[in-house]
Structure formats: C-alpha cells, structure tokens
Amino acid sequence: MPAAGLCLLPVGALTVVLSPLTGRLVGARGPRLPLVVAGSALALGALASLRLGPATPLPAVLVTFLLFGVFLGAVNPPITNTAVSGMPRSMAGVAASLASAGRQSGTTLGVAIAGMITGPALTRGGTAFTAAERGVWWLVAGLGVCVVALGLLATGRRALESADRTAALFEDLDGRP
C-alpha cells in the first residue's frame, strides 16, 4: 500500500511547484492560458485513466497522475484571480471566499457523484467496479473540456467588459473605488 501513496506524490509535488508559477503567469498574462492548460490536463488525465488497469506499468500510472498534478497546480490561481478581479477591492475577500467555497463544494459533490456511480459495483467484484469507474473518468474528461470552454469564454473581451460593468455597479453601491 505505500506504493499507492508514492504514486500520488507527483500530484502534490506538481501542485506545490506549479501554483506559484501559475500565479505569476496569471498576474502577467491573465487567467486564460492557465485555465486552458488546466482543463486540457484534466481531460487528458481522465482519458488516460480510462486505460489504467491492474497490469498497467507504473510509469504509465505516474504520467497519468502527473496530468492531474498539472491540473491542480494550474487551476486554482486563475479561479481566485478571476473571482477577485471582477469585484471592487472592498468585496475582494467575499469574492475569494466564494471561489474557495465553490471549489470545496464542487470537490465534495464530485466525490459523492463518483461514489454514487461506483458504489453499487463494489459488491459485484473488481471487474464490475472497473467498468463502473469508467463512467467517472468520462465525467471528469467532460469537466476538463468545460474548464477549457469556460476559460476561453470567461476571459474573452465580452466577459471582461461585463466584469468591469459589474465592478462599477458594486463601487457605486459601496461608495468607494
């Protein structure tokens, strides 16, 4: 079992290494590229997970997990930046906390849905579970594609103009810039 924990080490390591670099990239060039990279890594990691099985060589498992590490390291800074940048400074804390609560709620919901999809197969044995978990990976791949799409849509000219208009409304209500 220690090998399972070691296999997850690249996910955590990449998250720690990439998050600050992604934060700098978001500050310099905006959130679009990191969101596209994150969504692509999530989708590719899920698609690669569809091919994992008991006989999969360890290097293939590690490469798959590296994709999930890229996703986690690249997705959080642009989400927080996007949430905060559309609000006046007086509301930045609220925006950041809402983004964090949304991330945590989404993760919790994702685990519950994955359990709902795979749970009934646990009593039927390994091959039934393997077949059931494929549905989870297809769902995760679809979510990766959604991250890419939202990254492109939410960072376009029209979305940025809408964020500026919304921030101006909050500034008018708050009475402070």
Folded structure, characterized:
The chain has 6 helices and no strands. With 177 residues, it is mainly α. The protein has one domain: Growth Hormone, Chain: A (Up-down Bundle), CATH 1.20.1250.20. The model has no long low-confidence stretch (mean pLDDT 86).
Write down the CATH topology: Growth Hormone, Chain: A
User: How many structural domains can be distinguished in the coordinates?
Assistant: 1
* Name of the top-level CATH class: Mainly Alpha
Determine the structural class based on helices, strands and strand pairing.
mainly alpha
Number of helices: 6
Give Rg in angstroms. 19 Å
CATH architecture: Up-down Bundle
N-end to C-end Cα span: 55 Å
Task: Please sum up the structure shown.
It contains 6 helices and no strands. Helices cover 83% and strands 0% of the residues.
Walk me through the topology.
Elements: H1 2-29, H2 32-49, H3 58-85, H4 92-118, H5 126-153, H6 157-174
Helix pairs in contact: 1-3, 2-3, 2-5, 3-4, 4-5
Considering the chains and any ligands shown, give keywords for the structure.
Growth Hormone, Chain: A, elongated, mainly alpha, 177 residues
